[in-house]
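User: Could you check the structure of this?
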Amino acid sequence: MTLLWTSEDLISAMHGRPLGDMPEGVGGISIDTRTLQKGDAYFAIKGDRFDGHDFGSAAMLAGAGLLVVAESKLPALGRLSVPMIVVDDVLEALGALGKAARDRSEAKIIAVTGSVGKTTTKEMLRQVLGSSGEVHAANASFNNHWGVPLTLARMPMSAEFGIFEIGMNHANEIRPLVKMVRPHVAIITTVAAAHLGNFKSLTEIAAAKAEIMEGIEKGGYILLNRDNEKFGYLKKKAGDLNIGHVRSFGEHKQSNIRLMSSKLGADHSEITARLNARDVVVTIGAPGRHIVQNALSALGAAWFAGADMDKAVAALAGFTAEKGRGARHQLSVGEGGFTLIDESYNANPASMRAALSLMASSQTKGEGRRIAVLGDMLEMGKFAEKVHRELAPAIVEAGTDIVCLAGSEMAHLADEIGETLPVTYRQTADEIAAWLVDNIQSGDVVMIKSSFGIGFGKIVAELCKKFAPQSVEVAT
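Assistant: Sure, the predicted structure tokens are below.
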């Protein structure tokens, strides 16, 4: 087993108290007994729904090398015959270990935030930087108060690049996390009306995103979307923080990473981008105008992180969209098949419009139709009815033939569309799934989009279960 941490270093970083016969070290860090690997350190974090201390026995049976537990919980764990490191607070101990991982690392660190495209950009960076050296990044959207320190704590000393996604739905959430990550390059993908219910305005959202600049290492870079309406605000914020390297990406003629031309295909895009004074032709292995923006930011970050740019450009051809974020399935129905676009992971007004544009660029076959399957956008607060109704023009412009809606807020959109298009409205995702199973026909393009909490992922699962795959264009 290759050691990620020695026990001595774990104890020192967390100021913990060892109990039992400590192993030489651990091969990984786990907070979930279902995925724990033999030899991992299991951190018994107390969450909103579960207390990790209740799974101490499961961690031991799964082969944990040691447990990290809270002093107050120790009496209930005394019967476990596994080494332990006792700390005051397990989550704080994980944060301390994350900081220690950052302190010992010589990797170039990149942090990504933004209202849309964080995870896609992170995965693009994994792809492009992987051609230049060893990359460390989370395999999921671990972008919150436990996900960021966990990802840091898992970073091996051998990593040459570290990529960290940092999310937020309130002010003051990014600030403490970015001060752990201390990036050499930070990206704000865009500022849009996400989590609008927790903010009074788009400017407040921009201010919260700008917190990522506060942790940038001296001499580091901030990379901003030059096409976004809050670019000027963010650039001023960067100036106030004395960040010397403010760079931009987009179509704007003053962008440092500038989109010169693009050809958007149904399953990929071909673009020409200007990096400094050099024009490069780039093939992106996933479709969508919004994906192009993410690719520009990834190329810029790779450039500023010192990657081999010829290899980085070539690597983008191998990028594919992820499950819930544009993954495509070709499924059989009748004598032919249909295209299923899975955008079920999350939704806000900006990403809804991007997904509709993606559907519009996808070709139907024969008598096929474009079917937009949309669920509620959550965390819109008092703006909820307004932003849902405002989707109607984008739906029409996308060449939508049928609209399927579910959720209490989508009832407003159903009213707004009226008789403009055929609308099927149901209360739940299960009911929408049943309607689709009965009504999908050969040649259709079906795009599914909602906030994660609405559960539209189950619609994707049901369609993939009911209709045999012709081929799967992305790894899920």
